[in-house]
Write the structure tokens for this entry.
Amino acid sequence: MENVIIAGSGPAGLTAAIYTARAMLAPLVIEGHAPGGQLIVSQEVENFPGLTEAISGMDLMDRFKKQAERFGTRFKMGTINHVRKRGDVFEVNIDSEMIKTKTLIIATGAEARRLRIPTEVKFYGKGISACATCDGSFFRDKEVLVVGGGNTAMEDALFLTRFASKVTIVHRREYLRASSIEVERAKENKKIKWAIPYVLEEITGDKFVSGAILENCQTGKRHEIKCDGIFVAIGHEPKTHIFKDLVNIDENGFIKIETGSTRTSTPGIFACGDVCDPVYKQAVVAAGHGCMAAFDVERYIERIN
């Protein structure tokens, strides 16, 4: 019987591991098949507190893991397939193995929706980003594209004008899903240009992005545009499908938690990080949330023991 199983090994999950391990709860972290979470694709991270110089996301998550291990956290490779509640105990199926636990922290994160074009994988983290606030400062005096037509795309484009010399918004429809006020703000900014209705068909470059091929959705004509970076702002998919029958989830798939805590609708199950955060999507926010989950778990276990 485990005290706590943590699903996910990104900033939220590993911070929860550090705190629960220091509370002598001997956490077990289920790493998934991509240990470290979404941050590992970042070539450079410079906005996480305590860093005196930029390091790769992979190196940062390696530090998280070593710190968690130092306090006694155990790690298991694999993916959770199913969770069943039996009384006050949860049965967690990990691949072909079943492990019982008193509590479960869900920190499986949210994955940025991809463009689904062949060269996207090649350039992810090498000019392609899904986080303008994370990576915008790396594109000072550069030309970038923002793909999307919602509020996030408008907000990202406006934020990027602080650094980039030119920001082009690429959207496949003639109408925008973003609110009128966000669209007007973007239209008023002289650094922002528009490619509507266009789709991004191909990404060009050698080691890093140097351009993109856009196709007009009405005429089918293609042309190449120079750019140094591409920011994808078409939403995130929270990894919650295996928990949807266990906890309350909102219309976009994010886990609902109680205000001011990480408690879900099911006692003994807690959620932290991007899996329940559709707004900020920052490593430092996820880490803080992981700390909260650890405290909530500790208090819960004290009550049931």
